[in-house]
Amino acid sequence: MISKELLKKVRKIQITTSRMVTDVFGGKYQSVFKGKGMEFYEVRKYLPGDEIRDIDWNVTARMGHPYVKKFVEERELTVMLLLDLSMSCRFGSVKQMKNQLAAEICSLLALSAIQNNDKVGLIIFTDRIEKFISPRKGLRHVLRVVREALYYKPRGKGTDISLLLQYLNRVMKRKTISFIISDFFDEGFKNLLSISNKRHDMVAITVTDPREIDLPNIGIIKLDDAETGKTFTIDTGDSDFRKKYKEDTLRRMRDRKNLLRSVNVDNINLRTDIPYDKELIKFFRMREKRLA
């Protein structure tokens, strides 16, 4: 049974994102993702005008007559949602927590996928693989994906993107459109991300809170590292400290941007204090322009 609470939450997401699902993901989604590959359909006898490069030489040798391979444009996609629910994502200082924003984006993409008659699956990860839902179609299936994205209680604390990518490549043998929704507080995953992007169409959706960039001046405070459990004390009244904190954060963001660019992975930057519709629309326009 689907709970009334879930239906209420999904309905709210549908209302707030209805224009995007209909206009952006209904139109631009198809143009930037669908039909990008070709899949084998059949072998038939060679006809005048067929491309020589399409000849299937093994079948030709066996049958004694030239045969060609026929391919059709891929119309059905498999969308994988890779959702980070590590402790660092369970933080927010403005309108919502990072994991709440990530879950909402996850729900939006899932609802968009079924509108386009695509399969959608989910992998929830931390420093372990928390949950895997194999891709399927249908509203009830997508409601399950949305429910897990919104309400799943993870056991792990840290972030292991390398483990996620290894698991994705192991369980998904065919090409997918895979959205990694994370704050990317991890290192050492560049090579695996490059390999994964050759097998799949990887899109990174980075989620950031403004307090991770600008510290407020509220004096001496004690902080806990959500993923390691370490406690430390800082003086936010020290302007030099606040300046260095911001510089370090911006440097990490630049490094992350350069890493994703170096392996040709598209990146969408979202913040908990800024509506995400403009960034998503900008992403789709960029993809359209690149394919034109």
Give the name of the CATH superfamily of the largest domain: von Willebrand factor, type A domain
The biggest beta sheet is recorded as: 6 strands, mixed
Shape verdict: elongated
Please count the beta strands (DSSP E, at least 2 residues each).
10
What CATH calls the topology of the largest domain is Rossmann fold
* CATH class assignment of the largest domain: Alpha Beta
Class of secondary structure makeup: alpha/beta
Strand line-up across the major sheet: 5-4-3-6-7-10
In which range does the helix fraction lie?
A: 40-55%
How many domains?
Answer: 2
Give the SSE map.
Elements: H1 4-33, E1 38-45, H2 57-63, E2 67-73, E3 78-84, H3 98-115, E4 119-125, E5 129-136, H4 139-151, H5 161-171, E6 177-182, H6 190-199, E7 201-208, E8 220-224, E9 231-235, H7 239-262, E10 266-271, H8 277-291
Parallel strand pairs: 3-4, 3-6, 6-7, 7-10
Antiparallel strand pairs: 1-2, 4-5, 8-9
Helix pairs in contact: 1-3, 1-8, 3-4, 5-6
Would you give an account of this structure?
- With 292 residues, the chain is of the alpha/beta class.
- It folds into 2 domains: 4-33 and 75-291, 3-Layer(aba) Sandwich (Rossmann fold), CATH 3.40.50; 38-73, no CATH class.
- Helices cover 44% and strands 23% of the residues.
- It has 8 helices and 10 strands.
- The chain has helices spanning 4-33, 57-63, 98-115, 139-151, 161-171, 190-199, 239-262, 277-291; strands at residues 38-45, 67-73, 78-84, 119-125, 129-136, 177-182, 201-208, 220-224, 231-235, 266-271.
- A 6-stranded mixed sheet has the order 5-4-3-6-7-10, sandwiched between helices. It has a two-stranded antiparallel ribbon with strand order 1-2. A two-stranded antiparallel sheet has the order 8-9.
- Helix 3 (98-115) links the parallel strand 3 and strand 4 (119-125).
- The longest helix has 30 residues, at 4-33.
